Amino acid sequence: MVLDTKITPALEKEGWVRDLVRSVQGLRQDAGLRPHDKINIFLSVPAPLQSAVESDKQFAVDINATDVHFKKSEKAEAGLSTKIGNQEIWLGLKKS
């Protein structure tokens, strides 16, 4: 049996989205939100990551978001600058 360790573009995008979900969940916890609290999420991300998020139909469900906005916003109640892969991102959230 041979294990294929090649990371395809699809696997890389899936990993980005998974890392983003983890970052949002951490920010939710830091903001004192509970898992059942609905949020609006604001993302300032490079185009490849935005495309990956837009094509992932489960993303909003996984983070319990009513809306996903691809822009930085002063309306965010909590925010975080970090990296996903080698991509600089900003994410913010506001309780719905």
Architecture overview:
- Helices cover 36% and strands 28% of the residues.
- With 96 residues, it is an alpha+beta fold.
- The chain has one domain (9-95): hypothetical protein PF0899 fold (2-Layer Sandwich).
- The chain has a 4-stranded mixed sheet with strand order 2-1-4-3.
- Helix 1 (9-30) crosses helix 2.
- The longest helix has 22 residues, at 9-30.
- It starts with 8 loop residues before the first helix and ends with a strand.
A few lines on this structure:
With 96 residues, the chain is an alpha+beta fold. The chain is built from three helices and four strands; from the N terminus they run H-E-H-H-E-E-E. The radius of gyration is 14 Å and the shape is globular.
Draw up the topology in text.
Blueprint: H1 9-30, E1 39-44, H2 47-55, H3 59-62, E2 65-69, E3 78-84, E4 87-95
Parallel strand pairs: 1-2
Antiparallel strand pairs: 1-4, 3-4
Helix pairs in contact: 1-2
Could you give the order of the helices and strands?
HEHHEEE
Count of all domains: 1
* Proportion in β-strands: 25-35%
In the CATH hierarchy, what is the architecture at level 2?
A: 2-Layer Sandwich
Largest sheet: 4 strands, mixed
Helical content stands at 25-40%
Mean model confidence by pLDDT: 95
CATH topology: hypothetical protein PF0899 fold
Helices and strands: which structural class?
Answer: alpha+beta
How many strands?
4
Count of runs of 4 or more consecutive helical residues: 3
Give the termini separation. 50 Å
Low-confidence stretches: none
Overall geometry: globular
